[in-house]
Design brief:
Helix content is 20%, strand content 24%. It contains five helices and twelve strands. Helix 3 packs across helix 4. The protein is globular, with a radius of gyration of 18 Å.
Length: 275
């Protein structure tokens, strides 16, 4: 007697395969044709007087995009006319000996052709204080003088460091954020969101549990997990399968910048760097 695959399991397998194909296809784009325009996730600073903090992630360039994402943090204090982006870049480390980049740039621009996803956002009252703490944590980042793609420290290690220092952001970094579980020689810390707990051996082996991330197991830098709060599976290479985390927002299906949002005038010195 033949056993039919349960409908829900069949749907999950189909969704998984679709995500794999989509992720791999996006990661293989030629960076020479990469777009840099914003995708419409960041409010126009000229029309937004309130303070804003946003955390983004996008697939890496070249072969790295098959495996993981690059993450960064954008801030705009109250009344500011442009965003400041905090991120860690391999190219900057090779060039200057410090991987930490703090610069004015479009926060929601494509990253080597890949549309970013908004991982967390805070606006309004009290956010200026969070921005000051982000700046302080960035100055204290202990791994600015080193960069290792796997298992870290890398750009995701930096974002997780900031998120732990400012837990009000409630960042749920995706399982494709390789390096988020690296925190040096320590064995115990809070989860990257700054809540719960995490055990990790140099980012290669570990486990975490928190009210933001759910439950995750790290094997050789690859994260597997489940989010029982916004039900979803977390898988390496693929990312999150299931309900969208309440803090997250993807780029609009039709991406059109506000015509009043003059990127060139607000970020005249902005230029791309390779991760």
């Amino acid at each position: 007697m033949q056993c039919a695959i349960p409908l829900r399991l069949r749907d999950l397998i189909a969704a998984t395969m679709a995500r794999v194909v989509a992720s791999f296809g996006a990661a293989s784009r030629d960076r020479r044709g990469a777009r840099r325009q914003p995708v419409g996730l960041a409010p126009d600073p000229a029309a937004t007087p309130e303070p804003v903090v946003q955390v983004y992630g996008a697939r890496c360039s070249r072969w790295r995009g098959y495996f993981g994402v690059h993450t960064w943090i954008a801030v705009k204090p109250a009344g500011a006319s442009a965003y400041t982006v905090y991120e860690v870049l391999n190219s900057r480390f090779r060039r200057f000996g410090s991987a930490l980049a703090v610069r004015k740039r479009v926060p929601d621009a494509h990253w080597f052709g890949h549309a970013p996803e908004l991982l967390a956002e805070k606006r309004g009252d009290g956010v200026d204080a969070l921005i000051e703490r982000i700046a302080q944590a960035a100055r204290e980042y202990p791994h600015a003088g080193e960069y290792v793609v796997w298992p870290g420290p890398n750009s995701n290690t930096f974002t997780a460091y900031i998120a732990r220092a400012v837990p009000e952001l409630e960042v749920d970094l995706p399982p494709t954020a390789i390096g988020k579980d690296y925190f040096g020689g320590r064995l115990v810390a809070t989860a990257p969101s700054g809540s719960g707990f995490q055990l990790s051996l140099f980012g290669l082996l570990g486990v975490l549990a928190s009210g933001v991330e759910g439950f995750e197991v790290n094997l050789l830098g690859l994260s597997f997990g489940i989010d029982p709060f916004a039900p979803a599976l977390k898988l390496p290479l693929i990312g999150r399968l299931g309900a969208t985390h309440p803090n997250r927002r993807a780029a609009p299906a039709i991406m059109s910048a506000d015509p009043s949002y003059d990127v060139a005038s607000q970020y005249p010195a902005a230029r791309s760097e390779r991760r």
